[in-house]
Amino acid sequence: MTFCMTDEKFQMLAIERTSPFCYGCYKVVGSIGDDSGLCTGCGSDDLMRHLNGVGAFG
Length: 58
Ligand SMILES: [Zn+2]
Prior knowledge:
The structure is a single chain. The protein is α+β, with helices and mostly antiparallel strands. The protein has a domain at 19-57. Helix content is 19%, strand content 22%. A 4-stranded antiparallel beta sheet has the order 2-1-3-4. Strand 1 (19-22) and strand 2 (27-28) form a beta hairpin. The longest helix has 11 residues, at 7-17. The protein is elongated. Zinc ion is lined by residues 22, 24-25, 29, 39, 41-42, 44.
């Protein structure tokens, strides 16, 4: 059995387990799994992902 994780799958997994994080507002701007892509605070679409206990990345 081979296991291959594509970038796309990794991204899906990352979205499922992280919350959108706006660097401009410096806060989490959605719930875990939310991938609406827009900050509810300032409307920015340049969001990072935030993983509980690890921090923001992306
Ligand atoms: Zn924002």
